[in-house]
Each structure stands twice: as structure tokens, then as C-alpha cells.
From TrEMBL:
The lineage of its organism: Bacteria, Pseudomonadati, Pseudomonadota, Alphaproteobacteria, Rhodobacterales. Keywords: Amino-acid transport, Cell membrane, Membrane, Transmembrane, Transmembrane helix, Transport. Belongs to the binding-protein-dependent transport system permease family. LivHM subfamily. It is a multi-pass membrane protein. It is found in: Cell membrane. It comes from Wenxinia marina DSM 24838. One of its GO terms (biological process) is amino acid transport. This is Amino acid/amide ABC transporter membrane protein 1, HAAT family.
């Protein structure tokens, strides 16, 4: 039982990232009808927002420390971050320590701006073009963005640690009444899961309970009718593109302590997230979230040594096998609208 719970936790961890990226992809496809292959790059840019803020907060200058000397008795030169000069030693150190969560404050406006510029500057010109054209242009944009990141930050992964309070592991099994030490799990991965659940709940609440969200949902169902009512649905859909970009960026920010950011991490998640969208149902927000967590858990179980010894490599293809099976039996996906992808 403890092994099963551990794999479920691992699956929820992976599924959280899949679900957040797939949620943004589905928002864009459901509102604009655009297949956005640059969405993984938005996840990557969010991660590098955390890298950037961490580097900025770590900027320092050297001062003499009279309490410490070298072997000749001369005062040592020590690095003092500028943040500590501004806020004091204790508060400054705390701000540096909490760089990743604080990066959310940087990522939200940056990702909103990038999303709005991307939609207004490029995507809008491909609304009525075939999906193949949309895929080609957004995939090309993703390559350009990752090469820009590579040129600025280099090709090597950049470690970005979690705050000290959330490093290490917790005895999760003891919380459930199991024997002490039976289920040890990293604290930050649990934080990421709860953060993802909060973002997903926030997006659904925004769409369900606000006037803006209700208009957007109506536009997703019947864009022409909403437009005939005198509502500028195009502007609302543009804002939804920005919100979808922000969701992907926040997913990337909080994932940095789990996976050190690198320039190709967006592509690594993009393909799997598109599979999640298709399995959940094109345009279905609940389907994207459900499929993200289900496929994450399946991939986690498939990565167990006992399973891989029987079926080598199954952890690499299990998601695609499940996708093939579901689409053969139910082409519109788990929760897709009737008629979508079924003709």
C-alpha cells in the first residue's frame, strides 16, 4: 500500500504540471480555435523568470569583514547582496531565500504581456488559417524563443532552490497512519501540487462566477451569437490568451526547484501536454485537468522497476498507448463535446 501511495503522489506531481499546461492550451483552443505549439515555451519563460529574479536578488558587492581575517591577518573581503543593504541583513536574506515564490510577482505581468503581444502580433493573423499553418508558425516561434533563452542564459540547467522551509522531505506515511519512514516525500513537490490545485480552482472559479468568465464561456460555445449582442468578444479572448500564458508561466516558476530550468524544458512538456489535451477532449477544460492527473499517475506506475522489468521502456510510451486506445474508442476524448474530432 505504501508503494502505491508513493506512486500516486509521484503521479499527482507530474500530473500537476501536465494539467496546468494543458489547461492553458485548452483555454486558447477553446476560445480562439488556435493550436498553440508555443505554449511549452511560455512554461519555459516562466521558469526563467524565477532564474532572473534569483540572479537579481543575488547581486552583491564586496566589503571588508573585520571579524574575519586571512592567514596574514588582513580583513577578508566578503560578498554582501544589495538586497541586504536595502532591507537589512535578516530581511534581505529572507527575501533571497524566498526568491522562487516571489518570482510569481514578476512572472504574472511578464507572462500577461508576452501573451498579449504574441496574440496581437502573430496569432491573430492565423485564426482562419488551417491548423497545420497554426502548428508550423507557433512551433517556429517556440524554437525562436528557446534559442533566445539559450543565447541569454546558456545551454546548461540552472539550479534554483526552494526556500529553506520547504527543502528536504516529510514523513507523509506517518500522516496517514502508516509506519514511520514508510513514505518519505519531498516537501516542495507537495507544495507544487497544492499550488497547482489552487491555480486550477482559481481559473475555474473565474470562468464560472465572474461576468467576464461567463461571457467567455458563452463565446466558446457560440462566438457569433455573443458578437451579435454587441459584446467585443475578440478583446475578451485576447485577454484569455494572456491569462493562459500567465497560467503556463506560473507552472514554470514553481517547477524550477523540481527541475532545474533549461532552454528545452518547454518542448519536453509540450508534446505530453498536447496528448493530455487530446485525451481529455479538445476544448474541454475539465477534461484537460482530469486527463493531466490520470496520465501523470499512469506514467508514475509505469516507471516502477517491477513494471519496467516486465515491459522495458513502457514508462516512455504508456501515455501514447493510452491516448491511442481512448481515441479509437472515443475520438472526442474523455470529456470532449459530441461531434468534436468525430467526423
Amino acid at each position: 500500500m505504501d508503494a502505491i501511495i508513493l506512486q500516486i503522489l509521484n503521479g499527482l506531481d507530474k500530473g500537476s504540471a501536465y494539467a496546468l499546461i494543458a489547461l492553458g492550451l485548452t483555454l486558447i483552443f477553446g476560445t480562439l480555435g488556435v493550436v498553440n505549439f508555443a505554449h511549452g515555451a511560455l512554461f519555459m519563460i516562466g521558469a526563467f523568470c524565477a532564474v532572473t529574479l534569483n540572479a537579481l536578488l543575488g547581486m552583491s558587492h564586496q566589503v571588508e569583514d573585520p571579524t574575519r581575517t586571512d592567514f596574514l591577518g588582513n580583513p577578508l573581503q566578503v560578498d554582501v547582496p544589495y538586497v541586504q543593504d536595502i532591507f537589512g541583513e535578516a530581511l534581505g536574506a529572507s527575501i533571497i531565500d524566498w526568491a522562487v515564490p516571489l518570482s510569481i510577482l514578476l512572472a504574472i505581468p511578464v507572462m500577461l504581456l508576452i501573451g498579449l503581444v504574441m496574440e496581437r502580433g502573430l496569432i491573430r493573423h492565423f485564426y482562419k488559417r488551417p491548423h497545420a499553418d497554426q502548428i508550423l508558425v507557433t512551433f517556429g516561434l517556440a524554437i525562436v524563443l528557446q534559442e533566445i533563452i539559450k543565447a541569454i542564459y546558456g545551454a546548461n540547467p540552472i539550479p534554483t532552490p526552494a526556500p529553506d522551509a520547504f527543502r528536504g522531505s516529510v514523513d507523509f506515511g506517518q500522516w496517514l497512519g502508516f509506519q514511520a519512514g514508510s513514505i518519505i516525500y519531498p516537501v516542495w513537490r507537495l507544495v507544487y501540487f497544492f499550488f497547482s490545485a489552487l491555480i486550477i480552482a482559481g481559473v475555474f472559479a473565474f470562468l464560472q462566477f465572474t461576468t467576464f468568465g461567463m461571457v467567455v464561456r458563452a463565446g466558446m460555445a457560440d462566438r457569433e451569437t455573443v458578437g451579435l449582442l454587441g459584446i467585443d468578444i475578440d478583446r475578451r479572448f485576447t485577454l484569455m490568451f494572456g491569462i493562459a500564458a500567465a497560467v503556463a508561466g506560473l507552472a514554470g516558476v514553481m517547477y524550477t526547484p523540481i527541475l532545474s530550468p533549461n532552454y528545452h524544458m518547454g518542448m519536453d512538456f509540450l508534446v505530453l501536454s498536447f496528448v493530455v489535451v487530446v485525451v481529455g477532449g479538445m476544448g474541454s477544460l475539465p477534461g484537460a485537468v482530469l486527463a493531466g492527473f490520470l496520465l501523470g499517475i499512469l506514467q508514475s506506475f509505469a516507471s516502477m522497476n517491477a513494471v519496467k522489468s516486465l515491459l522495458p521502456g513502457i514508462d516512455q510510451i504508456i501515455i501514447y498507448l493510452v491516448a491511442i486506445a481512448i481515441l479509437l474508442l472515443r475520438p472526442r476524448g474523455l470529456m470532449g463535446r459530441k461531434g468534436v474530432m468525430e467526423e
